[in-house]
Amino acid sequence: MKILYAIQGTGNGHASRALEIVPHLQKRAEVDILVSGYQCELQFPFEVKYKMYGLSFIFGKKGGIDLLETFKKSKFRNLWREVKSLPVQDYDLVINDFEPVSAWACKLRNTPIISLSHQNAVADENAPKYGSNFKLERFILKYYAPAKNRFGFHFKTYSSATFLPIIRKEIRLRSITNKGHYTVYLPAYGDKKLIKLLSKFKTTKWEIFSKHTNQFQLHNNIIIRPIDGKEFIKSIASSSGVLCGAGFETPAEALYLRKKLMVIPMKNQYEQQCNALALKEMGISVLKKLSKKQLPKIEKWLKSKSIVEVKYPDVTEDILDAITLPYYNQTILPHIAIE
């Protein structure tokens, strides 16, 4: 069996999940990898056969997605050329993690495709939804990378088509300690703003991992590091707590490691607003934005000893067996539609 595994390259969450999924797939089939997008810092230990420009969202420095910059860097004609040229017909199955080029190529050529992403779980009718006036955002979730057969990952199982998070082996096998610092990953905020606000807590040690620098910096009680996967795992596993965006992988890993957690959802990012709502329902501290007015809430969180308990078993292999077995048997998956 020949499988194309397609990864969205915006951020590091999709890539982190791929590091765990791809080796399992390679035991079962011949696997080629496609990555589209240009904001992923993680390095893959396997060959990427197709590197596409795709359609990415650009992080700003003021707490959200930079919509203007996203539009400027979007190359829609190029996207259409990539869709038409990608030979998805050469594969028995495409597994897609919110990646638009392969998804639309499969739709164009009627190639079998399974969508396996966190976004599918967010779109599930049983998952928490933020607000009622986000028709465009819901439209994007549904049609950005279309597929009929959809499965998702979330902090909790909201339906039979939703699985618990896939936690990387590097996290599962890591020794958990507490060296007193707080790990920060807020890529939608600039370093200057983070330093200005977090420096108010003079007795707290902060380790910030930044998309906006390529060198180590020290500012009194604040360390700023460029993105580095190994160093990030080391930092988060030995931290007192984690302050991060309301994405999926980093909060899930912090919860798995039993770390105190506070999240700040990105502006103009519907998915993160929904994630924040789900986490808040679980008892996680949530800030609307990072600002001077929010400092008392951060101080209260720093003093708190509350940790939310979760159980995320290692069932990656079982998940992949369940969703791919019908294709090995040359049968058809039941239609799972997400409205």
TrEMBL record:
Pfam families: Glyco_trans_1_3. It comes from the Bacteria. This is Glycosyl transferase. It comes from Tenacibaculum jejuense.
